[in-house]
Every structure is written in structure tokens, then in C-alpha cells.
């Protein structure tokens, strides 16, 4: 069984929980309900990771279904975060369906903050767990915003693998650690196991961000280069003195925002064998860290295996040196 199998099994239940959440708004909130529904409808996720908290709950209890509300929290949070990211990149108006940019921004606020808190007050959630789950949502927004601010304010000249890892722990690790910790709390496990699940989510979030970075290059979107984002791959290139100097990499990174030629030349450096070798070694270390945490946690082996497979799929090395564009720099 894979996480995709689990999503196929429970997608109808997740959709029903989402509808129930929106229908639970007061009659006076019909415009809010419609706007959030439109926002959610127009944000289809390529990888349905909303089942992650269900898998964690099943590792602890053997039963994924009680964590269906947490899958909705995951979808609402990421719908909000992705739209805010699009807005920061100047794409918001194109990705919100029939909503205007202002309407989408208001719907994004409701989707990301009040609604997840309402979800954890669902009758399906034991009253004794509501406070802890609600606290996790608040904590996630603070930590994730901190990570995103580090990303936006980051000085590429000072970017290192450690500094990028710290940013990734925030902007991507925080939402994954939120739902893994919430699932463990919902399962009623002791605090030490909750913290282990939180750390698993953090490291998995780093892997997922790296996976997303690779897909950005492979797709040809090059959003990270256009935005001047200090990615982990760029940090690897900056810390690798050969075959190009740090100053050359920094210069191309600055020029890549507006020059297709600079983007192609920088991609050529990023996909050089020496940079990719360091990149792949670190990906392998992050993957090994996830597996060590799962070894320590144990639990229902059927669902532990699902998580192991998900970790392995998320830590694939997709980039190869032969993918680099041929650039004439003479």
C-alpha cells in the first residue's frame, strides 16, 4: 500500500469533511463559504499529502479514519499558504478561479487560520484534544511565517546549506510537523512520541522542499531562479569552489531574475557533477534521518511501511548533469 492508495480509499471522506466544515459556517457567512469553496476548488494538489496525518494516526492505532479532519486541516493550510506564495510571486490573480485578487486574499485568510481551528472543534475530535490541536495550528503559522520571512529576506551572498536548512524547516517543515504532531496527539500518545513525530515532520518537510525545488528546474518554470530564491542546490554551488567561483555564481544568481541567458548558465553550474554529488549526499542524509526516526518510533508495520515508501519517493534524486542546458559563454 502507498499513500496514493490510502488517498484513493479516503478521498471521498476527506471531501465530505471539507464540505461539512464549510456548511458549518453560519448562514450569514454565505459569501465566505462560497469564496473559500472556490479557492479550494481551484487548488488541486499534484501530490495528495493530506493523508499524512492519517498515516501517522494509523501507525499509532492501526486506524487512519479518525484523523480525516486533520487531512482537511492540511488541505486548508496548504491552500492558503500556496496562494500567499503565488501572490508574493505576482501570480495570485491567475490562480484563484473566478475570485478577484482581493476576494482570494480574504478567502485565503479564512482558509488558513479560522477554518482549521473550526475543524479541530469538530464532533469527530475528542474535546480533550481540541486545545492541543488548536495550539499546533497557531504554532505552525508562526514558525512557517518565520521561515518564509527568512526566505524572502535572505541574503544570497550569505546562503549556506545550514541557513537554507533552517529556512526549509520553517516554511515547509512547520506544516508537516504540525499535522504529524497533531495526529500523534489525537492518538493519545505520550509527549516524547509526539516530539519524535514533530521531528519526523520537520525533516520530511526539508526533503519535500528539496523535491519541489528539483521539480521547479525539471518543469522549466525556473521560479526559484526568477525570484532569486536561495535554494539548497544554490547553497551547494556556493559552498563548492570548483569549477566556478562563488562570485560567479552570485553574479549569475542576481542576473537570472531578468536574463534567460544567465538562468541557463547558472543552471549549467547547478547541474554540474560536483554540485549534484554534494546535493545527493545531503538528500541521502535527510532520508536516513527520517528512517532513523521511524525505526525509533515503530508502530503498526503496515503503515510504517507506507511512510517509509513515501520518504523514499520524496527523496529521489531527479536532477542529472546531462540535463544542463548547453550555453555558449564565449
Structural class: mainly alpha
| Helical content (DSSP H or I, runs of 4+) | over 70%
- Give the CA-CA distance, first to last residue: 53 Å
Largest sheet: none
The tally of beta strands, per DSSP, is 0
What would you give as the CATH superfamily? Answer: Farnesyl Diphosphate Synthase
Describe the protein in words.
The structure is a single chain. With 330 residues, this protein is an all-alpha fold. The chain has helices at residues 3-23, 30-41, 52-61, 68-88, 101-112, 114-119, 127-153, 161-186, 191-219, 223-227, 232-239, 246-255, 260-270, 273-297, 301-314. Helix 1 (3-23) crosses helix 4. The longest helix has 29 residues, at 191-219.
Task: Summarize it.
With 330 residues, this protein is mainly α.
List keywords for this structure.
single chain, 330 residues, mainly alpha, Farnesyl Diphosphate Synthase, 72% helix, globular
Fold topology:
Layout: H1 3-23, H2 30-41, H3 52-61, H4 68-88, H5 101-112, H6 114-119, H7 127-153, H8 161-186, H9 191-219, H10 223-227, H11 232-239, H12 246-255, H13 260-270, H14 273-297, H15 301-314
Amino acid at each position: 500500500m502507498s499513500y496514493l492508495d490510502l488517498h484513493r480509499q479516503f478521498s471521498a471522506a476527506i471531501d465530505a469533511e471539507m464540505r461539512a466544515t464549510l456548511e458549518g459556517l453560519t448562514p450569514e457567512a454565505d459569501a465566505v463559504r462560497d469564496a473559500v469553496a472556490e479557492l479550494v476548488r481551484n487548488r488541486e494538489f499534484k501530490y495528495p499529502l493530506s493523508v499524512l496525518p492519517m498515516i501517522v494516526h494509523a501507525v499509532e492505532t492501526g486506524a487512519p479514519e479518525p484523523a480525516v479532519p486533520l487531512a482537511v486541516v492540511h488541505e486548508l493550510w496548504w491552500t492558503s499558504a500556496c496562494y500567499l506564495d503565488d501572490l508574493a510571486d505576482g501570480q495570485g490573480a491567475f490562480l484563484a478561479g473566478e475570485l478577484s485578487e482581493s476576494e482570494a486574499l480574504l478567502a485565503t485568510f479564512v482558509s488558513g487560520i479560522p477554518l482549521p481551528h473550526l475543524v479541530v472543534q469538530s464532533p469527530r475530535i475528542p474535546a480533550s484534544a481540541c486545545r492541543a490541536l488548536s495550539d499546533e495550528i497557531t504554532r505552525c503559522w508562526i514558525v512557517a511565517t518565520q521561515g518564509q520571512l527568512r526566505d524572502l529576506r535572505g541574503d544570497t551572498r550569505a546562503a549556506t546549506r545550514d541557513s537554507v536548512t533552517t529556512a526549509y524547516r520553517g516554511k515547509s517543515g512547520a506544516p508537516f510537523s504540525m499535522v504529524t504532531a497533531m495526529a500523534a496527539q489525537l492518538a493519545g500518545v505520550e509527549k516524547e512520541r509526539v516530539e519524535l513525530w514533530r521531528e519526523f515532520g520537520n525533516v520530511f518537510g526539508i526533503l519535500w522542499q528539496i523535491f519541489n525545488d528539483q521539480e521547479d528546474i525539471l518543469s522549466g518554470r525556473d521560479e526559484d531562479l526568477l525570484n532569486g530564491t536561495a535554494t539548497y542546490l544554490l547553497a551547494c554551488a556556493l559552498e563548492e569552489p570548483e569549477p566556478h567561483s562563488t562570485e560567479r555564481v552570485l553574479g549569475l544568481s542576481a542576473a537570472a531574475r531578468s536574463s534567460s541567458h544567465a538562468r541557463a548558465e547558472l543552471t549549467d553550474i547547478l547541474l554540474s557533477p560536483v554540485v549534484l554529488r554534494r546535493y545527493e549526499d545531503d538528500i541521502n542524509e535527510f532520508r536516513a534521518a527520517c528512517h532513523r526516526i521511524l525505526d525509533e518510533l515503530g508502530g503498526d508495520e503496515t503503515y510504517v511501511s507506507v511512510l517509509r515508501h513515501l520518504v523514499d519517493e520524496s527523496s529521489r534524486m531527479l536532477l542529472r548533469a546531462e540535463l544542463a542546458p548547453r550555453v555558449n559563454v564565449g
